[in-house]
Amino acid sequence: MRIAVLAHVRQPIAPPFAGGMESHCWHLVTGLRAREHDVVLFASGDSDPALPLDPVLPEHYERTFPGAEHRGDAALIAHVDAGYAAACDRILGGGFDVVHNNSLHRFPIEPRRTAVVPTVTSLHVPPYEALHWFVRASVVPGHRLTVTSARQLAAWWPEGAPREASVLHNGIDPAAWPFVAAGDGGAVWCGRITPGKGPHLAALAAALAGVPLTLFGAIEDAGYWAAEVEPLLGGTIRYGGHLDGAALAAAMGRASVFLFTPCWDEPFGLAAAEAMACGLPVAAFDNGAACEVIGEAGCYAPPGDVAALARAIRAAMAIPRTVPRDRVHRAFTHDRWLDGCEALYHEAIAARAPLAA
């Protein structure tokens, strides 16, 4: 198939990844190409140059408009809208069989566009006002929508999801996150360093549990880092930087437990699955899809409860490391995920075919 993958443009689609959405999109393109599909990635122009790239914007907009994401900046909105409008027009004229839309933008899901090119949209976030009603209005035969967990399916469609919407769990390549049979007694946390991810709470809980902790990830919110995280560093709490995949996998594998501390309705939790593949049990806040993803491979605390999370850290370290590894191999592999993507592409194409006849 000839497939357009349309990314969001807040960050580049390139390793080391800023977060799970960037990783998802990069692995989608590389995985589909490995399966001999003809793929074009529509993303920011500073994304991975090794990928077949058609730029939506010259560079990711956090560089062009730093810190403007949540301010309703009119110049940023116009800049992004213009980029997506032109990219969507190029996709319509590009001879694509299907679009995999990861953009979280309203233009690609307009029925006038999905009526021309069958589309699969992946919703990586809980419903929010700027997109919610556009998504609900986009349900047509040639458009398939996926969410990453049952929790998110119910959040987007509390009255019951339409048949065009389904759960497609994220997947990882277990070979990229090799299993290690024993840890060193320490804990690890990784992700975007923002308040919603809760690394400061992970640090407080680890200190209370008496377990060394290393934090990894991109510092996305510098003010939050300086005020809430950096003062906790020192002694057994350290920051290990923003590592590439292989280095992060090695660091993960050395640890004995992974801390997962979402302070929002976490749609999936790719970092938890990556840690689990390495053999790490998880101590987690029971927020969003945490239980759905981690299951029997973790111990849980109420959201924001540092003392309970400290107890969960100690309890989780008693879980055999084969339990998290086996859960990933059973439910969250890269191949299983790509199989699901391909099935949805065929569904969208078949559903649109009678309309095009």
UniProtKB/TrEMBL annotation:
<protein>
    <submittedName>
        <fullName>Glycosyltransferase family 4 protein</fullName>
    </submittedName>
</protein>
<feature type="domain" description="Glycosyltransferase subfamily 4-like N-terminal">
    <location>
        <begin position="19"/>
        <end position="175"/>
    </location>
</feature>
<dbReference type="Pfam" id="PF13439">
    <property type="entry name" value="Glyco_transf_4"/>
</dbReference>
<dbReference type="InterPro" id="IPR028098">
    <property type="entry name" value="Glyco_trans_4-like_N"/>
</dbReference>
<keyword id="KW-0808">Transferase</keyword>
<dbReference type="GO" id="GO:0016757">
    <property type="term" value="F:glycosyltransferase activity"/>
</dbReference>
<dbReference type="Pfam" id="PF13692">
    <property type="entry name" value="Glyco_trans_1_4"/>
</dbReference>
